[in-house]
Amino acid sequence: MKILVINCGSSSLKFQLIDSDSEAVICKGLCERIGIEGSQIVYTPTGKDKITKVEPMPDHNRAIELVIEALTNSENGVVSLDEIGAVGHRIVHGGEKFTKSVVIDDEVIKAIEDVSDLAPLHNPANLIGIRACQKVMPGVPMVAVFDTAFHQTMPQEAYLYGLPYSYYEKYGIRRYGFHGTSHSFVSKRAAEILGKNPADLKMIVCHLGNGASLSAVDGGKCVDTSMGLTPLEGLIMGTRTGDIDPSVVEFVMKKENSTVADVTNLLNKKSGVFGLSDNLSSDFRDLEAGYNEGHAGARRAVDAFVYRVVKYIGSYTAAMGGVDVICFTAGVGENSGFVRKLICDRLGFIGAKMDAEANKVRGEEKVISTADSKVTLLVVPTNEELAIARDTYALCK
Ligand code: ADP
């Protein structure tokens, strides 16, 4: 079966067409600037050159039409419309309602709407993507795959904030966690690579990308993760603060005479390693170059980033009463031997030893610890689209 995987943002739409038998990507691409002037679709049928078409896209319906057109046109299309057997949608927030992927029906759409206040930028966009697909591909089954679902096994002691309990009961204020599709995929794959049963492993998955989060996975189940009510909590990220004292918000508002929206923007878009490096960059390739050239901001940012990751690894080791495997994934985790080394150099306290030669790896599955290391260090490239395609196939075949 050919599965179309859709990741719909407010003004963008990423897609991949995946063959569920071979798990090969047949085509992938992106619609950019939907609803904004200058919109375009960029896509690459596997094995062919990248194609860019500048086309007006007043809304997501038009974007989906263009995706279908790109996939099926007679010149460089890759399938016929009736070959697309199902669509998998990435949905950011499933609240407490969704603990696994589900086939989309009216009730599911309503439930995704009901938790939209928890992800006001993402869930409405995800819903627009679902509705646009329903319109353009009526009758094709669709599946919702939630970023939050994998983390629903967290115990109450890990997901509650120290707020009055009534705020959890009334408003659902708690820690949910994100990147769940990636944490789930990587932790399962790591067990496969090591030839072990997930039930026998205590794992920490470090998803280090532009957005970054850690999860503690004990016996195959998530028991803690670093993101919270929103993806702002936890690690220092590309442009997000991660953990801060909430009093910073009021303090900055008073000092700068700014609004809550201004400070929220500051915490999400201008902070993290970008802000710490004095706006040098949020990209770790630039930060690594700056670090090696002795750029003070780059050093400060990278050191703070690494420190926070190590601190979380320590706390998750304590939470699980030990750790067997630490996995690195996502843009930085898969590609930056530099960042991995800085992190692992500080993990001697749990008996982790990195193999410097093996750590030269980039974007490939590889054990990067020495034979005598007490903890297995592992690079596992994530593949959220494949994980979505697998769930979609499993529910629609
Ligand atoms: P997201 O999906 O959150 O946007 P990704 O997982 O794609 O993020 O990661 C993107 C980040 O990965 C980039 O901002 C960059 O910092 C980092 N990255 C990508 N390639 C490399 C590399 N070769 N070396 C260091 N960092 C890299």
Automatic annotation (TrEMBL):
It catalyses: acetate + ATP = acetyl phosphate + ADP. GO terms for cellular component: cytoplasm. Its cofactor is Mg(2+); Mn(2+). Its main location: cytoplasm. The keyword Metal-binding applies. One of its GO terms (biological process) is acetate metabolic process. Pathway: Metabolic intermediate biosynthesis; acetyl-CoA biosynthesis; acetyl-CoA from acetate: step 1/2. PANTHER family: ACETATE KINASE, ACETATE KINASE-RELATED. NCBIfam families: ackA. Belongs to the acetokinase family. This is Acetate kinase. It comes from Butyrivibrio proteoclasticus (strain ATCC 51982 / DSM 14932 / B316) (Clostridium proteoclasticum).
